[in-house]
Amino acid sequence: MATTVHMEALSPTMEEGRLVKWTKQEGDPVKTGETLAEVETDKAVMELVARADGSLVKILVPEGKTVPVGAAVAYIGAPGEKVSDASTAAPAARPVVSSPSVTSAPAPPASPVPTPADATRVKASPLAKRMAREAGVDLRLVTGSGPGGRVTKRDLEAAGTQPAAVSSTPLPTPHIPPAVAVRSGAPYEDVPLTQIRKTIARRLVTSLGPIPHFFLTTEVDMERAAEARAALNKELGDQGKVSFNDIIVKATALALTRHRACNAWFQEDHIRYWNEVHLGMAVAVEDGLITPVVRNADQKSLSQISVEARALADKARRRQLKPDEYTGATFSVSNLGMFDIDQFTAVINPPEAGILAVGTVVEKPVVLEGQVVPRKRLRLTMSCDHRVIDGATGAAFLKTLKQMLENPLAMLL
Amino acid sequence: MANSFDVIILGGGPAGYVAAIRAAQLGLATAVVEREKLGGVCVNIGCIPTKALLHSAYIARLLKDAKEFGVEVGSVKTDYGVAMKRSRQVSDQNSRGVEFLMKKNKVTVIKGVGLLQPGKKVKVGSDVYEATKGVIIATGSRVKGIPQIGLEINKTTVISSDEALFLEKTPASLAVIGAGAVGMEFADIFNAFGAKVTLLEALPRILPIEDAEASDTLAKSYKKRGIEVIAGAKVTKANVGKDKVVLDVEAGGAKQTVEAAVVLMAAGRAVNTENIGLKECGIQLTDRGFIKVDQRLQTTTPGYYAIGDVAGPPMLAHKGFREGAVVAERLAGHTPHPIRYDNVPSVTYCHPEVASIGLTEEQCKERKLDYVAGKFPFSANGRARGTGETEGLVKILRDKKYGEILGAHIVGAHASEMIHELAVARENEYTVEEIDLAIHAHPTMSEAVAEAALDSLGRAIHM
Lengths: 413, 463
What we know:
The complex is a heterodimer.
Chain A: E1 3-6, E2 16-22, E3 29-30, E4 35-40, E5 45-49, E6 54-59, E7 66-68, E8 72-77, H1 85-93, H2 126-135, H3 153-158, E9 188-192, H4 195-208, E10 213-221, H5 223-236, H6 244-258, E11 264-266, E12 270-274, E13 279-281, E14 283-285, E15 288-290, E16 293-294, H7 302-317, H8 323-326, E17 331-335, E18 354-358, E19 362-368, E20 371-385, H9 391-406
Parallel strand pairs in A: 13-17, 17-18
Antiparallel strand pairs in A: 1-8, 2-4, 2-7, 3-6, 4-5, 6-8, 9-12, 10-20, 11-12, 13-16, 14-15, 18-20, 19-20
Helix pairs in contact in A: 6-7, 6-9
Chain B: E1 4-10, H1 14-25, E2 30-34, H2 40-45, H3 47-64, H4 80-104, E3 108-111, E4 114-117, E5 121-124, E6 127-137, E7 141-143, E8 158-160, H5 161-164, E9 173-177, H6 181-192, E10 196-200, H7 212-224, E11 228-230, E12 233-240, E13 245-251, E14 254-260, E15 262-265, E16 269-271, E17 304-306, H8 317-331, E18 346-348, E19 353-358, H9 361-366, E20 371-377, H10 382-387, E21 393-399, E22 405-412, H11 415-427, H12 432-437, H13 447-456
Parallel strand pairs in B: 1-2, 1-6, 2-3, 6-17, 8-15, 9-10, 9-15, 10-11
Antiparallel strand pairs in B: 4-5, 5-6, 7-16, 12-13, 13-14, 18-19, 19-22, 20-21, 21-22
Helix pairs in contact in B: 1-8, 3-4, 3-6
């Protein structure tokens, strides 16, 4: 019977470890106390040692992979001993889970092969490489279906990143994921952190606390949104009411479909870019706040959002939300408009990469075509996780959002 | 229970025996039901014996030209009967080879006619066998005649390849109806063995599924050898006599009669779907008569799969091989690489050989693809000149923007061997540039492949 080698807590605060290097290979004889692997903890690179004698019969975790403390990483057994698949599959395949909401998120479809773990080398066919180069598509963002996760022409086509299909919203810098159409089949796509992304993550964290926030503020003219809201409410009559918040939720969701880079989760060793938009909506409750989730908000009508948001907020205040109603958001909105707050900064709800802080709609003098006129104005502040979102990325998203709110008809496009 | 297996395969032809071997390799208890010899049409009355006969034809033709190579052999006499017997030995060897492989992989071979029954069961004689994981239907196909115009196969004056493979001697004259791979190969064989051969094709070109340029090259080569080629030919009536057949043929607006001692029917195949219990199991057919399958090759009744000719075109042994392997892997719980049906090579082993993969130039035009054709003739290839095999060319059709190999066509000696470089390239999505980057040995026929790739980029070296 083989002995399981677990990821051990090599420091008092260690929760997970990255397997830097296997110093023993499959088939090598090992003795109790001998070093099996080098593991990078939250503090330093430490040694994982054997707790049994025998042969290293099976390695479960490849180099470079991070696993939680307690996960099986290898088996020590008699030389040549076969470890049954059942015992190897579960622990090795389980990804790092850093959010409870994973359980409530729609399960990803079984993919034949995982995305390559090594971010420095992209596996893609020569044709796919060439097509991606011409179209400016980052192949690391495409899930490969070929042998060993190799990206093929078909994968590019499936990802909607063919030259003709590339979205018309170009983003300013090459490091920003391309504007891939958000709806592309799979609910999300895991993209390993590139070296630069890792460095950014590491350095910003040390400078600004666990999540390196930065903030972007913009002022939005809400005249036309107010007109649209009034017209809609007249149309709805006593069938309900659309609030500014509903319009903002809808616009934010739609803007996120055009800026997948902001619709993402930071996952320690990779960034999960969501292909679906689930919008968290901060609701103040008696002794705190909770963020119920409007699922697929981009696809719902304003009246649907209105009804759903109200129902969720009610449930939240009565503490009747079920876990799947407050987990799995891909981005959040926090609105303190009802408290007459002009502008504020919200704290990101990890692992989400951004949150939008919405102030109150206030009438104030604005210079318009040389005239000072009273206009309804709204201040939006986006908090961004700098490990995921760069300044220009967030700004591009906010610009789209601003355009949508200032011209609500654009949401119909 | 002795009559229970994981997988039962109906038919021991190429698709069936490969499915059996792969299933057995993956640890499944496997049985094959075969009513005749293992290896199916391919091994016994198809691919394998015809390749033996074609080589005899090749030698006959080579010896006739031997003098200019400095080798005198006197007069060349051919004897189809001897060639036929040799081809039978080759077939028997191969069939025994399949038998050996069944034994080696511990596949149970059940001799007899299998009948599908509901509940993943197969009845052979009075025994009923049960499959726990799946039943695979691989019953293949057979030649068909055209009874509508009086050309029912009578096995004497109107024959199919089944009979042609067992003839003791060459008929004085032979009309071949159908210029697909089978018709082309038999026309080639009997021409070399001295028959007066007329090749009739209903479609406007011989080898109609191949690129027009390949087809034209062959038509020229055949005519040069004295084979009469009539394309766009409609046989309106057939007068089948005791020792000859007279065909009324309309071609190009003109009527003519073709008289031959024997007519060889090579105008298509019918699938073996009758009397195997499909209906009883609820297994449906397509409009064209093939067994209806989904992407996983499962029939309309869960637990029953179809592979090879019965599962649809192309009716090629190597397509059946792959389907067999893939279904076996699925039944064993694996996730096989999906079959790319657009990347199945097609080969005709006549002389010169024709091999192709992907789209023809005509298809590129129909689909309005932006393509570039690169070509290299074997007349400019040193190796081909040395062997006197300068007929033909390599043609590569590449996408103009990305260099994707849309299609490749080779006419020439050993085309059947050279096509695989392009099959590998296409399967892995190499572009013409990767073909060029791989160094090709000199002097070889394969250099023409690299040169055609270069020509498509406007920079062929030896031309």
